[in-house]
Amino acid sequence: MTSQHLRLGVNIDHVATIRNARGGELPDPVRAAHAAARAGADGITAHLREDRRHIRDEDIERLTREIDLPLNFEMAATEEMLAIALKAKPHAACIVPERREERTTEGGLDARGQHNQLAPIISRLTENGSRVSLFIEADPVQLDAAVLLGAQVVELHVGRYCDLHAEGAREAAEAELNRIREAARYGASLGLEVHAGHGITYDTVGDIAAIPELMELNIGHFLIGEAIFVGLEPAIAEMRQHMLRARARAA
Ligand code: PXP
Q1: Each residue of 4-33: pLDDT tens digit?
Q2: Potential cystine with 81: which of 7, 11, 75, 165 (Cβ 3.0-4.6 Å)?
Q3: Which amino acid residue places its CA nearest to atom 4 of ligand 1?
Q4: Whose CA is nearest to atom 11 of ligand 1?
């Protein structure tokens, strides 16, 4: 199972963050998506936030028009975002929790607690031809809830593991990694396709990529930061090498 291809989705939100810091059109996140495609990314991820702090509506329109790679459209479970997703018809719609005051997506979606709000949104997206992914914590309760909701995919929030690793909290990081491993195993046993994302760097990607049930990683902020120093294509290529090496070691 470990020899299965682990897809790399490149999140281009923070190219738009830099553009919006100045106003105007540069740097262009769609150009970053083209560069990601040249570097061998398997997909493009973009999060249209309610406050449009990075990706804007016209970026989503251009990404669907100009980029051949599958688009993973991250969205809050709101009527506004549902209408945009139904029109854009992305390959995948990843439902994330969203609070205006947060700097980034801080926790997973409460798929169990929000069942009644999420169910109609998931069925409308699915009927419209998008695969629905739920961004959740590595928690069996949330995995069971995702199945009940009819989601095909879950993305496990690995941000806490990445933070603990960066802080050097080795035991806590290992415990969190084990929670992610168990959730990936349990999710796959339920028939879910399991992805992971948030906060991944060269230092943390290896242990995550080695989890055999994972099918896709979505990585953004670190790659855009690295791009400042080495360029986006080399940064993506190096991330891919880390992923391949981890899978080869685990096989
Ligand atoms: N996956 C999801 C669901 C996210 O919300 C984000 C952040 O927008 C990412 C992946 C990428 O996280 P990062 O930018 O920290 O790599």
Answers
A1: 899 999 999 999 999 999 999 999 999 999
A2: 75
A3: 198
A4: 198
Whether ligand 1 lies within 6 angstroms of the CB of 73 is answered as no
Asked if residues 36 and 44 have their Cβ atoms less than 8 Å apart, the reply is yes
Cα 97 to ligand 1 centroid, rounded to whole Å: 12
Q: Is 198 in the pocket of ligand 1 (CB under 6 A)?
A: yes
Under DSSP, is residue 219 helix (H, G, I), strand (E, B) or coil? strand
CATH class of 7-250: alpha beta
According to DSSP H, which parts of 56-114 are helical?
A: 57-66, 79-88
**Is pLDDT of 2 > 90?**
no
Q: For 221, list phi and psi in degrees, rounded to 5.
A: -50, -45
Classify 55 as helix, strand or coil. coil
* Residue-range domain boundaries for the chain: 7-250
Using a 6 Å cutoff on CB, does residue 53 contact ligand 1?
A: no
